[in-house]
Amino acid sequence: MGFAGVLRYIYEELNELQSRRGRGALSAAPIGKTAMSIEQFIDNELKGTDVVLFMKGTPQFPMCGFSGQVVQILDYLGVPYKGLNVLENDDLRDGIKSYSNWPTIPQLYVKGEFVGGCDIVREMFQAGELQSLLKDKGIPVKEAARA
Amino acid sequence: MAMAANDIERLIRARIPDAEVTIRDLAGDGDHYAATVIAESFRGKSRVQQHQIVYEALKGEMGGKLHALALQTGTPER
Q: What is the pLDDT of residue A147?
């Protein structure tokens, strides 16, 4: 494109960014002081998805052993879930700790209710309680063949 | 060196006087512990509530001086 075209392109892009900033969305998730509060963000996420895991890293690439353990358990049970990476956002990292009154990550929520961190999830899984909880809440669980 | 095992035990017992506390240093580095806390006063409380009480006992050290504490809580066999 010509010089004028480049200028027009840049102008349009800036306009787009400006208007998006007005709605508080420069990144995919509008969080932080400019847009909605972190509590609202967390509320929305919990309303929007049945099983939500606040974790370090992503389900594909967990960045902490404890988060990794919960991911393994959920994947093993074939539970559909959404991972929210607290390493990407300090507001979220601090916000979820005060929201849950729980000092560490990972944090597993099922239907808006805090189930626990890695220790509790692992204990419940080993006792079969996690599977029962999920089934009671109507969340699909893969039954593994038991010896 | 983060927190000493007996500091952890002391703090937990101060908050939960009837607790039986066992602490293991997992990596030998004073930074990764496993604690088992058994207390009659836990009876009727969910695991989350029991863990929250232990975290309260540690007065905000979690995530700061105390990096990793694997927790198991429960009530004594009757």
A: 46
pLDDT tens digits, one per residue of A2-15: 787 787 877 777 76
Minimum Cα–Cα distance from A108: chain B residue: B48
Q: What is the pLDDT of residue A88?
A: 96
Contact present, A63 and A87 (Cβ < 8 Å): yes
Q: A143 to each of A78, A130, B39, how far by Cα in Å?
A: 9, 12, 34
Q: Which domains does chain B have, with CATH numbers?
A: 5-74 (3.30.300.90)
Q: Judge: A117–B51 Cβ closer than 8 Å, yes or no.
A: yes
A117 touches B at CB < 8 Å:
yes
Judge whether B60 is closer than 8 Å to chain A, CB to CB. Answer: yes
Give the residue-averaged pLDDT of B5-29. Answer: 91
Residues 20-49, chain B, touching A (beta carbon < 8 A): 47-48
Which helix (DSSP H) or strand (DSSP E) does residue A43 occupy? helix A38-48
Q: What is the CATH number of the domain that holds A91?
A: 3.40.30.10
Check CB contact of B68 with chain A, cutoff 8 Å.
yes
Look at chain A and report how many structural domains it folds into. Answer: 1
Q: Is the pTM value of this prediction over 0.80?
A: no
- In this structure, the number of other CB atoms found within 10 A of the CB of residue B68 comes to 18
